[in-house]
Fold this protein.
Amino acid sequence: MAPVLNRALTPTSISSIPYSPLFSSRSNTQNRLSLTSAFLHQNGLKVNNFSCSGLKWKLGKRGGCVVVKCEASAVAEKEATESSGETYEYQAEVSRLMNLIVHSLYSHKEIFLRELVSNASDALDKLRFLSVTDPSLLGDAGELEIRIKPDPEKGTITISDTGIGMTREELIDCLGTIAQSGTSKFLSALKENKDLGSDNSLIGQFGVGFYSAFLVAEKVTVSTKSPKSDKQYIWEASAESSSYVIKEETDPEKQLRRGTEITLYLKDDDKYEFTEPSRVQGLVKNYSQFVSFPIYTWQEKSRTVEVEEEEEPKEGEETPPEGEKKKKKTKTEKYWDWELANETKPIWMRNPKEVEKDQYNEFYKKTFNEFLDPLAYTHFTTEGEVEFRSVIYIPGMAPMNNEDVVNPKTKNIRLYVKRVFISDDFDGELFPRYLSFVKGVVDSNDLPLNVSREILQESRIVRIMRKRLVRKTFDMIQELADSENKEDYRKFWENFGKFVKLGCIEDTGNHKRITPLLRFFSSKSEDELISLDQYIDNMDEKQNAIYYIATDSLKSAKSAPFLEKLVQKNIEVLYLVEPIDEVAIQNLQTYKEKKFVDVSKEDLELGDTDEVKERENQQEYIHLCDWMKQQLGDKVAKVQISNRLSSSPCVLVSGKFGWSANMERLMKAQTLGDTSTLEFMRGRRIMEVNPDHPIIKDLNAACKNAPESSEAKRAVDLLYETALISSGFTPDSPAELGGKIYEMMAVALGGKWGRVEESEADSSEPNVDPTSESTGETEVVEPSEVRTESDPWST
């Protein structure tokens, strides 16, 4: 019987068995393969375990046979050892990495000041937090503050703080290791030690903000003194170098009591801009206005002082005695001093119940450089998936240029992260275009920013913020509309009403919030705007639609022939007089289950119609309608009896699915409009006639008695042209229309007031002898010779 292998050997295991001449096939009766010499130890079966070719083998007996076992774990370990490779660490060219960090992360050079001030604020925050448990860290090094001093002569700018400072080891760890955030490590330590709590006011996250200094500096020097160390150290590096130097400060005059002083040796291209004191102060006010520690900048100031005026004595005058008081004069002198740059406090961090209205107004004026108080404001905090605080305002006046209002890139919303300004350029991400007039600040501690802290990264988070901001804005506007002071909402509507209407077009998801805010004039309220809720409250119970007419002015809306029957029936009609009104209403379609109906379109249903009289009119004037349609041809789709006229003879209405006269006028006026689509979208025109009007009755008689009369045909043509104008359309040929009107006027007015024809005037002149010569002299008649028959003075 052949030897038994307890585990099927893999090809690798089999190939590891060494060749031996003892592996031989001996011919015997059983044709056995002899493996004994190859596997058995020299001591035979005395050794149960042994290694061969790196594998562990185990021998045993079973009956009269030798059993050979190969341990599976040994095979797996052998295979893993052979398949594993060597481990290497990533290598980086430091100078190139620094170049990428500096020039690829930040879009503006001025960001460096924001980053360095934020680092200084973090250092002060750390010291304040640690001093709670160890007050000795504060010592007598002065107040917690930040100072910025530009030096135009040396081309440097110095940012100093009285914060925690750094030891030599911390310099190496924080500044010598790229993307190593000391603030992040500090926060991690706080979270691990739950007894100490945590401080979310720390700003740093990524550990690369310090290197933004190389955006404008060719060399950076950091001098720092930690209260934990007796020595002060200097860290120095150049922009193009891949190394840095740390040394101990030995100059007594440069010793710091505590904190850090960063000096930037500016590049030639940036020396002028960032050593200008007013420019530096402007950057601080923009980016770090609401940092919780005072920031002082070195500024040039002026003051008025009194000086003694020295006058030289004139000839012949004696020199005044020394004790006599000299005349004094005032002069203005300039001097340099520290000036607080962040006076305004972050009002959104306070409890709304503790802030007065005047404080909100003052904050609005300072932050957005406004001179008028806001119409309304709201201060709120949201919690949940995204937590942020915000104060938003409705300005007191719209911008002079309307394009600035509907521009999604307006810089009206300022985003802060932990009170540090991040961005105001969102391209409609936080507010829709139609609400871009809203101004305000948004501050959050945990927004997902990119490394440069300039761009919001997660679109889902932005959508949640946008939804909540828009909802709060509508609540604020609705509160303004419901307030007792109607004058405030009237001002709001005058300034921003058309942009709320734009929301009806662009934001279908918020129609329920937008529609109650709309205001229009109406046939019953020509002097005061009314809401759609007021319109519905004034409706008759049987009225099931909201009627409107769109025109170019309030005056033309009042005199439109479409309203005659509705006004007679006491049905209120909304006047849409702004270009955007009609499109906005068409996008709404309904409000509180009431449809919006355009009274200038066909199939107007007013209810309470006299069916008997309507049937009689149809029978009486059916031939007139066909005859007029034949005369007008393709100008109208059809001619029919009207149920909307009472005093006008006729009117032109638009098809149900085509443009109205007002919309057609607007589309023709578009600068970049496509005239080829006008005919397609214009829709059909339907002429409706008033059967009770004398002109229509006369034309009906002409249709029956003299259908071929040229005068009747001219009357129909002129009637159509007149209806075209009164219905709001533009005639194709105004000059031709004018000629027809002049012709009709000539017929109507001919000889009415005894006009003298030219032929009659010629016949009434006396005959003049053509042979008589004109002397060319004028005969002068003396007044005394003039006599009339009725002259009482004549004798």
The radius of gyration is 48 Å. The chain is about 35% helix and 20% strand. Residues 459-482 form the longest helix (24 residues). Residues 59 and 68 are 5 Å apart (CA to CA).
